[in-house]
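Protocol step 4 of 6: structure prediction from sequence.
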Amino acid sequence: MWPSSLADRRDSLRPSVPCEAPVLHAANGPRAAVHERSFEPARMRRTILEMAYAGSTVHIGCAFSIVELLTVLYRHHLRYPGNDPRAAGRDYLVLSKGHGVMAQYACMREKGWLDDACIGAYFRDGTELKGLSDSRVAGLEVTSGSLGHGLPVAVGIAMGLKRRGADQKVYAITGDGELNEGTIWEGAMVASHHRMDNLMVLVDRNGFQAMGTTEDVLALGDLEAKFASFGFETLSVDGHDEVAIDAAVRRLWTSITGKPKAIIARTIKGKGVPFMEADNRWHYTRLDERSYAAALQSLEHAEAQP
């Protein structure tokens, strides 16, 4: 838990790109010691279920679909000197699809930034943890309830870091339905024009948005080709294959093209609990005692597999 309320620390928790001399890391960047079993997807999904049940809230499916993406980033790539979520030399993770924030809270629990009391109080009166990403919480870089705004903020952060000569990296996770927003493509054009090779966009391509499939609501077409046409170096990957995600991230960062990066991650909304998978009702459905127990049983079965 935080030593004082966020209201008392609002100014100190406001996200910013530091103005001091640029922070440069050793080759490949220092990594905090992470237990080899940290960030296991089944455990992360169990945390999400605990939060959703405790707070009687929604957005379970869209949190489940980004678990492996976040797992790989937190375990292998994001740098937080001193394990400090506000360290001046940190990399930036911008959750543009802010309604998936329970998955990021689960990561923050793994990092030791949130304790069990925080998780158990999710979405209740007086909680610090809300149902959308809120930059007043240490570890969350943007307030991103309105879709389409997180990526442009990430572009601005990347531009600031680039101008300072820092070697920090910026990751932005967007939903595929979120790509309906014009601000996404305006931000993409700016990133390409200014050759922001310190920016990586990861698209959660789960095929659904709030009111239906992405193809029924507004067809997105070939997203790898689309991002490439906007000047990004782009790869597609199975968004639940941790090895493949890690390899794609490493491959793009080793590139010397000077282009911003994009990974189109093919995912399953509700991944990990069979009765939730590809069922868009779990965008807005709340858990009751029976469905909570069934979902936990599914995850326990997954954890028991070799």
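Step 5 (inspection) to follow. Residues 40-304 form a domain with the Rossmann fold fold (CATH 3.40.50.970).
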